[in-house]
Amino acid sequence: MGALSSKLRNVAGGGLTFWCAGCREAHTVWTGQGPGPRWTWNGDVERPVFGPSVLVRTGHYADGKSPADCFICQEHRAHPDDDHGSWRCTICHTYVGCNGAQPGEIIYLSDCTHDLAGKVIPLPDMPQYRERDCGAEGGT
Ligand SMILES: [Zn+2]
Is residue 25 over pLDDT 80? Predict the structure, then answer.
């Protein structure tokens, strides 16, 4: 994985990774030819436009279970004061650069389960620790 800009990193196989300030984790869309869903990209690494929307579901939103039957939700109910980190059930539904966002912005649709639902913000820079994860920049 390498940095294309402060906003985007590429992943072998046509992946483009951006930071989601709502989920506080990276999301990857896949461009060009290959298996699975593919997105269009305007080729701009600073002000990207992806189509169609980017939908990320985790936990019972992904597997179709009810919250009552969801193991992750059960753990959250059983240990409400623990830090569960990114281990949670979420919907994150966005457009990058289109459908209400300008190129380089991200619009969070109202079905997002996090704080940024309904908001439009500039695509944030990738946090530094992603660079350490990928190991492409060399170490200090
Ligand atoms: Zn997200």
Answer: yes
